[in-house]
Amino acid sequence: MARHTWNQTSKKGTNWKNAVEVGLTEEFSRKHPVLPVSLVKPYFQTGEDKFSSRKKTTTPPDIVEVEDSPGPIKKIIKARKIRLNGKYQRQYLVRFKN
Fold this sequence. Notes:
By secondary structure, this protein is mainly beta. It has strands at residues 7-8, 19-23, 34-36, 73-84, 87-96. The strands form two sheets. It has a three-stranded antiparallel sheet, with no helix packed on it. A two-stranded antiparallel ribbon has the order 4-5.
């Protein structure tokens, strides 16, 4: 589901403590514009500069072809992550096409 912006509107002189009226986009014009406060969260804009120490996601390494492999891989049966020489390494149990 795509994210949509909801603009909070004025309370139009009503004394609401547990509800908020929001301005909806044209896509949601048929929806009721009053929501309970429990469903509304404040919006905080995030940026790369705020989380400079956060670990960046990396792409997995390319598949390495082994010269003595029995053929192309048909299916990965299991995968595990082990520690070898102080570094984490992924190992795969595979089924080959025959």
